[in-house]
Specification:
This protein has 107 residues and is an all-beta fold. It has no helices and 11 strands. Strand 7 and strand 8 form a beta hairpin.
């Protein structure tokens, strides 16, 4: 969930086997975005600072999104990316299938 402190709206993002991220307005019970995010299963999805969405997939990528724009795509992985976090602004940590990790920095 992500709460927009300006509008007071509460959002929910979900992703699945179709590679699509769906974003819902929880209070209005409406879908507000449908993002064709990945070419394979989405393994993990989370909100990060500023209402951005980070997602990772079996397609060996993790990506950073707003509700309508791709900000970052990291496709330097050699295997499925099972988890991803953004512990601080511009820093990303991703975990792959064979328990390896990768640190990335937004330039």
């Amino acid at each position: 969930f992500y709460k927009d402190t300006t509008s007071g709206k509460l959002y929910l993002a979900s992703g699945g086997m179709d590679g699509i991220i769906n974003v819902y307005d929880v209070f209005d019970k409406t879908m507000i975005a449908c993002i064709p995010a990945h070419s394979s299963n989405i393994c993990y999805i989370s909100w990060v600072a500023g209402g951005l969405i980070i997602s990772c997939s079996w397609d060996k990528t993790y990506k950073l999104w707003s509700m309508d724009k791709l900000f970052l795509s990291n496709d330097r992985h050699s295997e499925a990316v099972w988890t991803c976090k953004s512990p601080s602004a511009g820093l990303f940590l991703s975990g792959m299938q064979r328990q390896s990790t990768c640190f990335s920095k937004l330039q």
